Amino acid sequence: MRYAVLGTGIVGRTIAAKLASLGHEVVIGTRDPQATLARTDPDGMGNPPYAVWQADHADVLLKPFAEAAALGETIVNTTAGTAALTALDAAGSANLAGKVVIDVANPLDFSAGMPPTLDPVNTDSLGEQIQRAFPEAKVVKTLNTMTCAVMVEPTRVAGEHNVFVSGADTGAKKQVTELLVSFGWPEHSVIDLGGIETARGTEMLLPIWLRLMGTLGHADFNFHIQGAR
Amino acid sequence: MRYAVLGTGIVGRTIAAKLASLGHEVVIGTRDPQATLARTDPDGMGNPPYAVWQADHADVLLKPFAEAAALGETIVNTTAGTAALTALDAAGSANLAGKVVIDVANPLDFSAGMPPTLDPVNTDSLGEQIQRAFPEAKVVKTLNTMTCAVMVEPTRVAGEHNVFVSGADTGAKKQVTELLVSFGWPEHSVIDLGGIETARGTEMLLPIWLRLMGTLGHADFNFHIQGAR
């Protein structure tokens, strides 16, 4: 499978590296590849600039959003949530139509400082916004409820824990579940919540997730629905 | 300890019965005791009318909100979230001042149908609203993230799972934690999230909780933060 991962941050890099390690072709999409490669400062969380990561992952291509999305058979949105619709617009609806679009982003709004709030929230979600904006895409919301290291290496958290999938298309959710299993998630740990509107519930886990990260002092934790089976 | 439980619904009854079974004095608060006792229809979830429950729990008193709150050394708010501030106003700030007020309610708004939304949400919470309205009360938000049967009998859900506490007053949270332990919660299962503003995070668990109840077909589940210790 050829994947287009939209976004050059730590989430996109982590998922791209995992996909490549599993033998998939991977192209990362960004607004302006030259500008992305020209950055020399670490990001706000202290991650090294993209070019450093790219040098270690020469098998992963870096292309403008539209070119990446055209190449990808499956799309993974890892952009900052508030930039996701702009990035997907740049990717182009024709390049998303008929494809599975895995939405990993959370619509965190840091404009009023910490802790961030969610926008949209409660009566809408980023997953639904993306599905409405690109009705021919098969949007599946998943993996947005944990740190990216855990997304691709669930055994970082000992014991049973869960990953959620939300989306209208059963076949798309089946494909995404198979991908999650290839990442190391036991099939029984994948909870299908239903339609894309259930992304409201998973996105609204972010406030307690962020608080728990502060309380626990680390991010290697995850939600486990005890009693689910 | 003498407890005032505000609210005559299934949550209030369940907590009142548990407190009484542990040897506490319990008075339930309601707007109009005569009206509460006169109801003969089951509630919207099929629970029997209050009078049926009262007949089986003659040791639990039923009083108007203010009288109940005056009698209670600790207050437990189990009213419907959208009615909580009105009920607490009726209880009276003088009857809450200096006391621990345990807020179990969620501000679910069913006015636009199912699923309910939260009001307030995201930038505020019911827990914070109550603390602001009654600054002399020691508000602790807890137990609002599970079905009431699990609140008072955590072993209904096999394995490890968690209950959260949020509040400004350390002594109040210690008292509430001791109460939770007396309900059967292992002390290590109680996660102190910090101040009352962290109630935003636990109240925002409700959308996924409600969806999970639908998906799983039962309510005997709970959140477990895997990797928390």
Layout of strands and helices, then pairs:
The structure is a homodimer of 229-residue chains.
Chain A: E1 2-6, H1 10-21, E2 25-30, H2 33-38, H3 50-56, E3 61-64, H4 65-71, E4 74-77, H5 84-91, H6 93-96, E5 100-103, E6 108-109, E7 117-118, H7 126-133, E8 138-142, H8 148-152, E9 163-166, H9 170-183, E10 190-194, H10 199-203, H11 206-216, E11 222-226
Parallel strand pairs in A: 1-2, 1-4, 2-3, 4-5, 5-8, 9-10
Antiparallel strand pairs in A: 6-7, 8-9
Helix pairs in contact in A: 4-5
Walk me through what this model shows.
- The structure is a homodimer of 229-residue chains.
- Chain A contains eleven helices and eleven strands.
- The first copy, chain A, is α/β, with parallel strands linked by helices and 229 residues long.
- An eight-stranded mixed beta sheet of chain A has the order 3-2-1-4-5-8-9-10, sandwiched between helices.
- In chain A, helix 4 packs across helix 5.
- The longest helix of chain A is centred in the C-terminal third of the chain and has 14 residues.
- The interface between A and B is large, with 40 and 40 residues.
- Strand 11 of chain A pairs antiparallel with strand 11 of chain B, so a sheet runs across the interface.
CATH homology superfamily of chain A: NAD(P)-binding Rossmann-like Domain
> Would you identify the CATH architecture of chain A?
3-Layer(aba) Sandwich
Physical arrangement of strands within the biggest beta sheet of chain A: 3-2-1-4-5-8-9-10
Total number of domains of chain A = 1
Stretches of chain A where pLDDT falls below 50 for ≥5 residues? none
